[in-house]
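Q: Could you write out the predicted structure for this multi-component system? I'm mainly interested in how the pieces pack against one another.
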Amino acid sequence: MSVDPYMRGRMTERKSYVPPFELGKPLDGACISKVVESKNNQFAVGDYVLGMNGWREYWISDGSSNSGVTKIDPNLGPIQFFLGIFGMPGLTAYVGLLKIGQLKEGETVLVSAASGAVGSVVCQIAKAKGCYVIGSAGSKEKVSWLINDAGIDYAFNYKEFKDDISTELGKVYQSDGIDLYFDNVGGKHLEAALDHMKTFGRIILCGMISQYNATSPTPGPANIFLAITKRLKLQGFIVRDYYDMLNQFHADMTKWVNEGKIKWKETVFEGLENAPKAFIALFNGENFGKTLVKIGPD
Amino acid sequence: MSVDPYMRGRMTERKSYVPPFELGKPLDGACISKVVESKNNQFAVGDYVLGMNGWREYWISDGSSNSGVTKIDPNLGPIQFFLGIFGMPGLTAYVGLLKIGQLKEGETVLVSAASGAVGSVVCQIAKAKGCYVIGSAGSKEKVSWLINDAGIDYAFNYKEFKDDISTELGKVYQSDGIDLYFDNVGGKHLEAALDHMKTFGRIILCGMISQYNATSPTPGPANIFLAITKRLKLQGFIVRDYYDMLNQFHADMTKWVNEGKIKWKETVFEGLENAPKAFIALFNGENFGKTLVKIGPD
C-alpha cells in the first residue's frame, strides 16, 4: 500500500477535494493487491489489481467499473511501480510539469522535496526534456542520489541553510533565474523560489508538506508581491482532474523507463502495524523516494 | 499629471520592471500637456499630448517615435481621461480582467480598492459583461458610490471588519464562491479572497497597496495552500506588456462610455506643490477614484 502526504489533509474535518477519514473506520488509499478469490470473470485468482483499499490486509469488491479497481500488468515492472512512477505520483509529476507548467526544453527548473515520490520523477522528466534541474532535499544521502543517480544538475540539503534557502539558491542557477518551480513544500521554499524566479516564470503548486502538521496558521510568502513585478503565474492542481492524460503518460513513462532515464527509490515498511510509522516518516523526512508498506506474503 | 501607486515602488533602490527614481532629479510619470512651442510639424501649438514627464511645469521633447509622446484627441472626453479610463489605469483593468483573467459572463467577481482608478473600471467592465460584482472600499462614501453610481451588486467598507474581511465576504457572494478576484490590495484581502474562491478560480494580482509602505516584511497569505485544494491560478501582470491591446481597448471603452456604462470619479489636487500630498493620499485612502494634480493654467 501507498502512504502519501495528501492523506494528512484527510485527518482534518473540513471540506476539501477528498472527504476526511472517518473515526472508527479503516483509513484508505491506493494499494496493489493480488486476487485470492473471484466470482467476477474479469478478475482471475492471481491477478494483480490497483484499488483504493489500502490500510487493511484483505478487501472485497464487486470489480464493477465504478469500484475503482483496475487490473495491472505485472510484466511492465515491479507491481509497486503502479503506486509510484506508473501511478499517482508519476502522473502528478507529469501533469504538473507538462500540462500545468508547460515546460519547455532548456528551461531552468527548481524542485523541492526533490528525492520524494513526486519530486524525483519531476526532476528526471525535466532532465529528459533537456532542462537544467536544481533539487532541494533534506539529507546528504538524498542530495548525493539526486546528483549521482537521478542525474540532476545541482542539489542541496536545505537543512544546512535553515531560513536562508534564498541566498543558497541565488548561487546555483544558470542565467537569470528559475523558469519553473515545482513546489512540494511551501513555506520558506516557496518564498526563496519567488526571490529567484525569472520574469514570466511559473510556479506549480503541488504540495506544501512543510505546513501539513502546523497547529497554528503558517505565514505565507512575505514576498508574494514579486508575483506582480515578475509577472509570475502560480497554479495549484490536483492530479485526479487529469486522468484523461493517463494513456499518454503511460506511453511516455514506459519509454523513459526503458531508456533508463528514470531512476527510482523506495522506502518499504513491513506489516500493517508499521503503516503509521511509514506515514509519520513522510513528514519527518525519514523516507527516501516512494514510501510503501508491504502487507502479507508476496 | 497622474499619481499612481506603482510610483511607490520606484522609491526603493532595487531591480524591478521600472528603474527607481534618482536622487536629485525630478520624479516622472504620466501627464497630459499642452504644446506651447513647437519645431516639430507633427505637433502644433495648442495640441494636447500624453507624455511621461509629470512632476514638472514645462518639459521639452523632440517628439520622435521613441520619445513616448503621443497626441491625444481632446474631443473624446476631458483630457485627463487619458490618464484614467482611456489611459493606463483603464487599460490595466481591461487587460487584467479580460486577457489575464479570461472573464466569463455571469461569473462572481471580487474587486479590492474597488473605487480606485483601476478598481472602479474593473467593477464596471465586469458589470458590462453581466457579472455579479462585489467591491471592497475604505469609506461609506466610496461604498455608496460603488452601489449607486457604478452600479455594482454589493460593496462593503473593509475598515469596519478589520482583520475579519473573510467572515463578511462569506455572507455576500452568490452560489458557491468567487470565480475571479482582482487584487489591488494584497494582505488580508488576498487571504480573505482565498478563503472564498471557487474551485478553478482565478486571482489577478495587479497591486498590493496595503504593503507598499511596510517597513518590515509583511506575512503572505497563511492559507495559500487553498490554491492547491481549490486548483486556483494566481497571476501577476504589468500593463505595459499588453500595449498591443490598446486599439481594441479604446474601441471597447469608447463604446462603454458612450453607452453610459462607465462612471468616473476623480480627486484633483491643484499645483505642483501639492503633488506630494496627492501621492500620499493614495496610501491613506483619502483619494477617491483617479488621483490627479493640475499644474498651470487650463
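A: Regarding packing and overall arrangement: The mean pLDDT of chain B is 94.
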